[in-house]
Amino acid sequence: MSWHPAFEAAAERAVHRISPVHLRQLADRVGAGASDEVAAEAVPVPGFAEAVVPLLAARRAAGLPAAEAAAYLRGLAAGREQGAAAVQVESVWSGPKTHPVPVRSTAQVLVGLVGEAQHELLLMTYAARDHPPLRAALAAALGRGVAVTIVVETLQGAAGALVGQEPAAAFAGLDGLQLWHWPIDKRGEEYARMHAKIAVADRRLLLVSSANLTQSGVDRNIEAGLLVRGGTAPQRAAEHIAELRSRGVLARLAS
Prior knowledge:
It contains 10 helices and 9 strands. With 255 residues, the protein is of the alpha/beta class. The protein has a 9-stranded mixed sheet with strand order 2-1-8-7-6-3-4-5-9, sandwiched between helices. Strand 4, helix 8 and strand 5 (178-181) form a beta-alpha-beta unit. Helix 1 runs antiparallel to helix 4 and helix 6 packs parallel to helix 7. The longest helix is centred in the N-terminal third of the chain and has 19 residues, at 66-84.
């Protein structure tokens, strides 16, 4: 295959936003000679078309034959899977430090994870309050073109367990950020809550923690979590959130 830097750069950007399985499905469509419009619909999940349309356009602009493009995409998917096999896991804590046992703080890891995101960032939290370091990191991510999605609980959904401002208010003024929630009429059970606290960057970094996105959660309380780098867990978490959105379990929160 001859060198096509624009196509290769577009493929590298796309692979951070879609899974190797979905990349292979795209390769199958491209290799079969499907039109760009048909290829962009190869996987009916949110964000897929947006991720691959620039890639398909770059292939056309480069005049790259469909068979060569498909082979490159399959190789890229295989390499991504091989890289994902190397997994690093570390513990993350909020609250008091113990010098004999050095651990990374939740606040440090969370802001660092947001800072590493180049394409896609997903956050879920039960409670949220204004936390300037996190807001600054989110603003910077939005400024470099990261697609940021945050799923929050609502005061109505918490049924009195949360007071004060809506959790979504912690992210007011961050233009371009998408807020989602779990509507009451989709819960099925009276006492069901949106209680997950996770962060996923580019489907390769996953923070799972007991900490809410509040000053108390990420700094003052004793909270514990795990940061997973690589492997399938970050990818699966992002795919699960995407599926909840596509099925209508989660809904956009009106600003």
